[in-house]
Amino acid sequence: MGGVAVEDEEVKMAWAGKIKYTLRQKQSAFALLVVHLIQFAYREGYEITLGEAYRPRETAELMAKKRKGIKNSLHCKRLALDLNLFKNGKYLTSSEAHKPLGEYWESLSTPGLKCCWGGRFGDGNHYSIAHGGRK
Ligand SMILES: [Zn+2]
To answer: In terms of C-beta density within 10 A (0-12 exposed, 13-18 middle, 19 or more buried), how is residue 119 classed?
Structure first.
């Protein structure tokens, strides 16, 4: 049997909800999907600088005390990335400016891998994969 047939079977199982990604598999899928997101941004004429990706639990707890994030942030699970967006040299900070990227990011979702854009909850530069009910 060729690899294609196996992949087809995996896709069928995923669609049937029979594949559950482990955290480690989600983390690696996230890293690869971010590549697609960044390439999309450059194709659309944006430039990116990398913001926060991994956040130690201690930092998340301190931030939560200052009401700047949640203790159980997906950054602590290596499933979230903050991107800084630029166009024509201008730093774009609004959620609205991130919307084209956000919608593209959401479109990359597949069964078992839900790509979530923070612009849906007032955090426009935040891109993540849902895990344990969090975004
Ligand atoms: Zn974030």
So the answer is: buried
Q: In the chain, where are the structural domains located?
A: 20-129
Output the pTM of the full model. 0.85
| pLDDT exceeds cutoff 80 at 89 | yes
State in Å: Cα 16 to ligand 1 middle.
Answer: 31
**CB-based contact 115:109 (threshold 8 Å):** yes
Q: What separation in Å is there between the alpha carbon of 86 and the centre of ligand 1?
A: 17
DSSP state of 125: T
Q: How far is the CA of 107 from the centre of ligand 1 (A)?
A: 19
CATH 3.30.1380.10 fits 20-129, yes or no: yes
How far is residue 74's CA from residue 126's CA, in Å, rounded to a whole number?
Answer: 10
